[in-house]
Structure formats: C-alpha cells, structure tokens
Amino acid sequence: PRAIRLEDYAPPQWRVDTVHLDFDLDPERTRVRSRMELTRLVDGSAPLVLNGQDLGLEGLQVDGRDWPEDRRSLEPERLVLHDLPATCVVELETVLEPRANTALEGLYVSGGNFCTQCEAEGFRRITWFPDRPDVLTVYTVRLEADRATCPVLLSNGNPVETGDLPGGRHYAVWHDPFPKPSYLFALVAGDLVCQQDRFTTRSGREVDLRIYVQRHNLDRCDHAMVSLKKAMRWDEETFGREYDLDIYMIVAVDDFNMGAMENKGLNVFNSKYVLARPETATDDDFVAIEGVIAHEYFHNWSGNRVTCRDWFQLSLKEGLTVFRDQEFTADQSLRAVKRIHDVQHLRSLQFPEDAGPMAHPVRPRSYIEINNFYTMTVYEKGAEVVRMIQTLVGREGFRRGLDLYFQRHDGQAVTTEDFVRAMEDATGRDLGPFRLWYEQAGTPRLEVDGHHDAATATYRLTVRQSCPPTPDQPEKRPMHIPLRMALLDPSGRPLPLRLHGDGDGEAPPVERVLDVTEAEQTFVFQGVEAPPVPSLLRGFSAPVKLQFPYTHEDLAFLMAHDGDDFNRWEAGQQLAVKVLLAQVRALQAGEEPRLDPALEAAFARVLEDEALDAALVAEALTLPGEGYLAEQMEVVDVDAIHRARRFTRQALGRALAGRWRARHDALADSRGGDAVAMGRRRLRDLCLAYLCAPGEKEALALARSRYEQAQDMTGTMGALRALMDHPGPERDEALADFEARWRQDPLVLDKWFALQAASGAPGTRERVEALMAHPGFSLRNPNRVRALLGTFAMGNPVHFHAADGEGYRLVTEAILELDALNPQVAARLATSLVRWRRFDAARQERMRAALERIVARPGGSPDVYEVASRALA
Ligand code: HT7
Ligand code: ZN
C-alpha cells in the first residue's frame, strides 16, 4: 500500500459548486445518481479526478451527453475525466449493496435501517467524487424507498419536500445550504421513531430537535435530549457559538465503528452514546453520553463551519473539539475530577502510543490508511495542545482567538497553522516555538530539582527537558512547556513567588506559569526563608512526564496541603506508584511484598476526610492502573505488577476493613443524577471493591446481596465488579442471573461480556474463547468485539500477556477473521500487539511472530497491514 504525505498536498483543481444526489434505496441493490456542477479553478486543461472505492460506473454524462471512453480513465480507485469544459455538469450513476457492507463505511444496513459513515473516506464508497475535505459543496439529496420498511427518510440540512410514489414507495428531498466536505454527508432511512423537543437560540431562532431510535428504545432518549440542550446553551454562553439550521437530528444505530459522527444537521451515533435510563446504564455511561452528545454538537462549529484542509490537520477539529467537550463536562461536574479522568486517560493510552512504534505528531506527516490516525495523539494530546495555548494566552485571550478563528475562516477548510495564527493575532502572544507541539512526536520528560539556600533566602528550581526518539524523529528539539507551579511553606501555605528580575511593584502571585523553553533552565525565587515543597505541573499544565525527587513525606504533605486539587490527587498517585514499584522489585527478588505504612496512613486519612467531596475521595483511593505502572518499568513484568497491585488492594482492604465498611454503609442511600450523587456512588462501590479484595466470605455475601438489591445499573455493576476476581457461587450466580435478565438488550449484554473479559481470575482466556462461541457474540458488531476482545486485549494485561502465548493466539486469530469483515475495527484490535519490544524475550518472540503472521497474510487490509508493519519496522 502507498503512503500519503503531507508534503505532497496540492490544492484542488476543480470546485464542485453543487451536487444533487438521488438514492433509490434497496438493501440488496441501491442505485445512486449524482449530478455535479463543476468549475475548473486553474488555467489549462487540468483533468477532473474523482475518488471511488469498490464502485462500478453505470453511466457517465457531461452536460447531458455521454462522455467518450477515450476521454476518461477508470482506475480501481480513481475516475479521471479529460478535456472537460471549464464549467460543466457531470452526471454519473453507481450501484451499491448496502446489506453486504460489513466494513460499516459508506452506505450500510444496521438493524434493518440504512445509514452512512463517510468520515474519513467513506463517501467514495457511495459515488465517484473529489472525496477530500477541502472541496466544499452545497448538497441536495433525494431519497426514495419502500414506505412500509422505511417510513423515515433523512439527510443533511433542512427538509424540502416529501411525497408518495407508485408501488408502495415514497421519497423525501433535503437541502443543506452550508457548503460542506463529502465526509459530512449522511443519510438515514428506516423504521425509526423520534423523541422531539425544541431549542430557542439566543438570537431567537427556533430549532427542531429530534433523536431517532428503534421503537423499543424510545424510553431511553431523555438523557441524550437534556444533554443536547445543555450543550447548545453552553456553547452559546461559553464560546458565543449558535446553531444554524432549522433542525438538528441524532440517529442511534447499533453497528458503528466509532462513538458518533458529526454529519451536518444529522449526527449518526453508536447507540451506546445515546440510549440510557438508570436501570440499563451506569453513571459512567450517563457522563459519557453527555460528553459525546456535546462533542458532536460542538463540531458544528469546530469541524463543520470551519473544517480541515486535509486529513493531516485532523487535530484542528478533533483536538479543539475534545478540548471544548472537556471544558463542558468540567462545568457540569467537579472540574478537578474531570481533569483527573482526562489525565488518566491520556497517561494510560496516549503516553504509550507516543512511546511506541505508532508514535506520530499531533499533525502527522504521512499515513497509509487515515482511519488508523483517529488516535489518542490526534484527539487527546491535540486537546492538551489547545489547553496549553489557553494557558499561555489566558482564558479571555483564548476566547478572542477562537472568535477570530471562526470569523476569519467560516466556510473554509484550513490548517492547524491557521488556528495558531488566529490565537497570535488576537492576543499578540508569540507562539512561534510552541508550534513544535504539532510537529514533534513523543512525550517530553521534565526533570526538576530544587535547592534552597537559607543564607540568601532563595530557592532555585532547575528544569531539564528531553524527549525520547520516536520513529522517523531520532533528534528532538526543546519544546515550549507551560509549567504551572507554587511553593508551599512548611505549614502548607503557598508562598509569594518573586522571581529574580521581577519589579518591586505588585504583590507577587502565589501561583505562576513558568515558560520552559530551553533544554535546561533555572528559576530563582526570592524571599524563601525555609525549604519549601514545590507543587509542580499544577492541573497537569502540559502533557509531559515530570520527575522531582520527592520523599514519601513530601508526597504525604502535598496530599494534605496542596491547594490544587489535581496535584493533591497526583501526590497520592506518585506515592502509590513508588510503593507499588517497590513491591514489584520485591516480588522479582523472590521476597514477600509488604504494605507500606505511609500509604496505609494516607489512605486512612483520606477515607476519614468527610469534608472532601466523595468523588475526589474515590479518585484518591484508586490505585494507579496496571498499564500506568507498566509505563514506569524498563521491561514490563505483567505478572509482578498484577500481583503487587492485587496484594496492595487486599492488604488495604484488610487493614482498613472497618473504615471501608463504615464509609460504604454511610453511602448506602445515594440517589440522584447529579455529580455529587454520582461521586457518592462511586465511593460506595470502591469501598465494596476493597472490602471484597481479600476474598472473604462475608464481604462476598455483602456484594451478592448488593447485587440482589441494586436499584440501578450502577449498583448492579458495582456489585458484579467486586465479585469478578473471586470465582465461586456468588460470582457465578450473579453472572448467570445478569445474562438471563439482559440477554435481549445489546448494550447491557456488552457489559456482561466485558466484565468477564476483564477478570483477573484464573481461566479468563478460556472463558473469553468460550464466549466467542456464545450465541450473542458476533464479529460483525463492533461494540461486541470491543466488549469481549478489546477488553481482553487492552484491559487485561495479565491474561492477554500470559506466558504460554495463548492470549496472543486468540487475539491474532480474531484479528485475521475480523479483517475480512471490518478492517477498521480489526486494525484497532491489532494495536494491542504493537508494543512487543517492551516485554521479556519470550513474550517478545511470541508477539513478533503474531505480527509477522498478520503481515504475511495475503489479501489483508491496508489498515491492519499498516499497524502490524509499523510495529515490526
Ligand atoms: N469525527 C468522527 C470520527 C469518526 C470516524 C472516523 C473514522 C471512521 C469512523 C468514524 N466514525 C466517526 C467522530 C468524532 O470524533 O467526533
Ligand atoms: Zn470529534
């Protein structure tokens, strides 16, 4: 397969002013007629190049006449038309088989209904077209289908006309007045019902809101609708962004490769991110739905009104929109808890990506298959880059910059450079060196050290930055890193931060953002009488790995006194990491691990802190994950990490049993849908998990009875999770009951598959293999694949990396089978194998062999090939 390179970008030579699409829908044979009004943008006789994939060509006319064979060339993925007049109308026809489409790109059938997925390059599976994001076109779409099976016919924009046709058929016409790239095209047709509402924008425009679902799901749309209205209001109030069409539609489908898609006016969603009521969805599901609904809505400006010039600019819309949805969620809940979750997500998924063979800059320079670049780096690190810009220019400056960006580029397809320039122009801040964040891959390391000099009452903070090499980028340059920090005096109060060179005028601030731009820099703070404890990288002000030689006592001090909630949590995490890694070393040396008294004392203090929000208590009492611990090791020892973490959970469970129980019981009656109630339930279930960790009968019986009495899915899952690592009647009966009760409900059954795939108990790999033969399992449904195989491969290191290689075998076989059906999902699963060099020699050998088997397979997809071959390079 051929690589596409940023440096080869060339602007389009033709404009498609309008396109009329006519769909004659049939699951077996859909006819698509397209009529494009074209204008040549360059002098001379540049041919028109249209993209197509797995498409025939049933007819081709230019200005109403058949176009001769010798003036066109039909290649497998391109149709090139030569000698066209400078303005012309091209009409062509294709025939599709939506029911046979298992890749879920282009036009396909899900749950008996037609839907489309065109980002990134799915439109070329529907019709021949310049399928690139910098070609913006006004669409008119006519849909025709059987009225009985497809009463609902939807496309982008506003409805124009509907009517009946002979033979039980009917039609609808939609017109989208906003020029858009082809990746934002969508159609949906089927037997759907909708929940309807209205929204009045701040300028008084009335918007018809609709959420379309299958009839049996109509009672699960309230939360999505409330979330949508909240997001619409929030975007007006926070960023001055208003909705622009008369109607906003969301459609939930069960078969979907990703979370959701922001097609103009017609979002198509994975049903997982729409459907919820407390009996079927957990608190985490509710929060995720609110976030994804908001994310897709926010794309209407950051992505749709201002779109990407080419796919290398993907983070322009995704990083910015993730940043916007993070801010939205932070405003709906506890800001510090949201920041903790986002940082956990980044560290456990993006940092490993940035340290592995798939590492790439936020703005990549080349790809084989663009679908493989919808990555943690483009999304999550991209959002961190936007957040750092906000830190550097300030909140108000950021708002001005964003206003300028939208005003300057409305209706255009632009680059990350255009975004940065708007920020500079609106604020006067020079972001020159900062741009490197878009170009340089890898997670920078900050090694910080502090030295107090009592004689001069100064504190010197020395900061060294470096970045490990990544594929294609062996040499790294220093980045511009905003380091938010404070110094705490021995009583825990923040000190005024007067730097050498500051004027004497204003009172110095107690928190500063240091501009770290050099490989090594020293900051000297004046007037520091006693040795302080620094609070560094507050709020995680940059996506870096920070090292500072904190003692256990320093960390306990910060846990107790840091005024930054994120850093209080972080201090606890760093303490736990130190303790757990010491246990790993003990286990590797054949010694018994022991529970560190500092950790036990810190946990006891937090557990008794009634003043602290329950949600923050829960975060503070959650040990760092196995993946994050693995990142701290030279050679990953999955078994020792798993044993150390299990040992600590059990030891803390035993040592603080009375306190866990008391706090658990005090939280028994935690109802309501607000963030406070959710935090209480999270803490309640965490207490239950610690109580059950040692595996004693009494605690397991408590979990079993909690399962019986659960009023909602959060409680049910909390009880089940506490039981999952403890084989025995309590676990097995609860699992069997759950399956019997929820067998008919795909989203809930996914939870049942995922729970079992995540279990640390012996025999999990065998169980996963058995579950692949379960009547409810199907490789055709991405949610089911992710629930069972994704959870096993990405969320269960100790079983996936089992020394006998059986975990690798199971996943490799699944990847190969899945690749023939759905390459996009298969490629995601294949990323579980790419960091093979991190493990011991025996595991390396097995993982490499698995990758070689994948690469060698004839007829495999470019998606999977790209992942496996990069891993082996
Ligand atoms: N912009 C959307 C990305 C997306 C997608 C990409 C490739 C293949 C399938 C896909 N479905 C959705 C979703 C988003 O980030 O908002
Ligand atoms: Zn997005």
UniProtKB/TrEMBL annotation:
It catalyses: Release of an N-terminal amino acid, Xaa-|-Yaa- from a peptide, amide or arylamide. Xaa is preferably Ala, but may be most amino acids including Pro (slow action). When a terminal hydrophobic residue is followed by a prolyl residue, the two may be released as an intact Xaa-Pro dipeptide. It is an enzyme of class 3 (hydrolase). It comes from the Bacteria. Keywords: Aminopeptidase, Hydrolase, Metal-binding, Metalloprotease, Protease, Zinc. Residues 442-548 form the Peptidase M1 alanyl aminopeptidase Ig-like fold domain. SUPFAM superfamilies: Leukotriene A4 hydrolase N-terminal domain (SSF63737), Metalloproteases ('zincins'), catalytic domain (SSF55486). GO terms for molecular function: alanyl aminopeptidase activity; metallopeptidase activity; zinc ion binding. Residues 225-432 form the Peptidase M1 membrane alanine aminopeptidase domain. Coiled coil: none annotated. Its cofactor is Zn(2+). Residues 86-184 form the Aminopeptidase N-like N-terminal domain. Its EC number is 3.4.11.2. GO terms for biological process: proteolysis. Residues 553-873 form the Peptidase M1 alanyl aminopeptidase C-terminal domain. Aminopeptidase N is involved in the degradation of intracellular peptides generated by protein breakdown during normal growth as well as in response to nutrient starvation. Belongs to the peptidase M1 family. This is Aminopeptidase N. It comes from Ectothiorhodospira mobilis.
